[in-house]
Amino acid sequence: MLFRPLLPNIVLLAEMPPDRADPAHLHSDEYRLIERAVQKRQREFAAGRLLARALLGELNLAVPAVLSDADRVPVWPEGVVGSITHCASLCAVAMADAAVSAGIGIDVEPASPMNHELWPQVLRPIERERLSALPPSLQPMGGILVFSIKEAVYKAIYPRRRVFLDFQQVEIAFEGEDGFVAEVLVPGAGLPEFPRIRGRYRIARGHVAAAVVLPPAL
What DSSP element (H or E) covers 196? Predict the structure, then answer.
């Protein structure tokens, strides 16, 4: 699995290509969320929901449907944290008991260099400098890598704080071979108990993947 090396064993994980998901297997309440969407979007959504329900079953929390709230965040059963991500070629769901993690964020993107015209929207100036410290083989993927990392950070904290952040309001530094540390620059948008958010990334199998697993809430 793409994400397994990035996640501790306490986190349940499931992955599948979206084209293997059949929207007909969605609960009617789930299907209503995407009934007007194009087929590609329907399959990506279906893959996430089918995987999510399978993982909830492993936690003995079988539910008929995994819906979304007004902010389009998946509504998990009480005591569960999780994250869903998908691109055209892969969907993944990560989930854990809230007693062992305060939040999870995962993101997957195709391993294709980001157009440099988009870099000013995603990367802060200091982050551009930090990309030069990455191995030369990874540097062409620097833009999409930072994009994916910031998406994972946002997914991990947003369900608790409910503050919208743009890409310039989170700053990333790399550490070790596959680690990163993120700082939320907007007061009140981050989590006070986690001023620096750590995670891991991976570029493999044609994808860029990033993951954040927060420690338990204090």
Answer: none
140 confidence band (pLDDT: 50, 70, 90): very high
What SS3 state is found at 13?
Answer: strand
User: How many CA atoms, within 13 angstroms, populate the side-chain half-sphere of residue 214?
Assistant: 32
On the question of pLDDT at 59 being above 90, the answer is yes
Question: To the nearest whole percent, how much of the chain has pLDDT over 70?
Answer: 100
Element (H, E) at 213: strand 207-213
CA distances from 190 to 12, 60, 99 (A): 25, 31, 20
Q: Indicate the burial class of 160 (C-beta count within 10 angstroms; 0-12, 13-18, 19 or more).
A: middle
The token duo for 14 is: 């499931």
6: which DSSP letter? G
Paired tokens of 43: 């399959």
Dihedral of CA atoms 208, 118, 44, 67 in degrees, nearest 10, equals 110
- What are the distances in angstroms from CA 41 to CA 13, 64, 108? 21, 21, 15
Q: Let me know: does 111 contact 141? Beta carbons within 8 Å.
A: yes
16 token code pair? 């599948």
Nearest to 148 by CA among 92, 91, 197, 109: 109
DSSP code per residue over 94-133: EEEETTT-S-EEEEEEES-PPPGGGHHHH--HHHHHHHTT
Task: Write down the pLDDT at residue 62.
Answer: 85
